[in-house]
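Worked example 3. Consider a protein that binds zinc ion.
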Amino acid sequence: MQSSWASLFLIGNFFAFGYAALPLQILTWGKTPPPFHITIWATLVQNPVQSICSCPLPDTKRLSYPTACPRIVSKDEWGGRPPKGPTEKMNVPVPFTVVHHGGSKDYCTTEERCAAIVRSYQTSHMDSNGWNDIGYNFVVGEDGNVFEGRGWEAVGAHAPTYNTKSIGICIIGDFTDRLPNEAALKAVQSLIECGVEQNKIQRQYQLIGHRQNTASSTVCPGTKLFEEIMTWPQWTPDPKNVKGFQTNWD
Ligand SMILES: [Zn+2]
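Given these inputs, the predicted complex is written out as structure tokens:
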């Protein structure tokens, strides 16, 4: 790059992207292509704490950005049926998030196929179990999409004793022997973050797998997925309600 063009680029970036990136532009000058400077700027300005320190910072790592919420495929979009009876209003923000798997080795990586499986879950829950609607608050596919179930505002039917106090998220498939793909895991994490930002889930929420619900006898969400969520920061081996008691309420 000619020096005059280089100066223009530097000055342009300085005014366009702010003071924060300038020292890094100088440090990395000549070593990296221009998009890298923009990446540095974006990282620094949008998430300054994590840019500097990768250590665990429970509150600062959840800086609020409206763009953090994933796209949620609405019931209309996936061809869901309306509830056949009244659902209970959720008292938000809830203190728990419960992770499930579908429990059948039926996987999907396209929105069309995932939507068909979500419809089959709803049919099973409404017609076989006799529930008013699909049990989960949300369903996530390995296509990376989040599908609306009962949503944030209605009590689900997925984990007895936790239903009125949690958002239940199910990943489509059986994760006994393998993990969900990265797209699905990221979608779950992003959805939880979104719930925290929108005050649907308490900031200090506890994350559990369905098998931790003593009122259920289940291996859900599958051993591999359970081992994965055990590594997530807010997973708890000892779920307690907000007053510090064990969760055998209700
Ligand atoms: Zn489950």
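Take a moment to read the result before moving on. The mean pLDDT is 80. The chain has eight helices and six strands.
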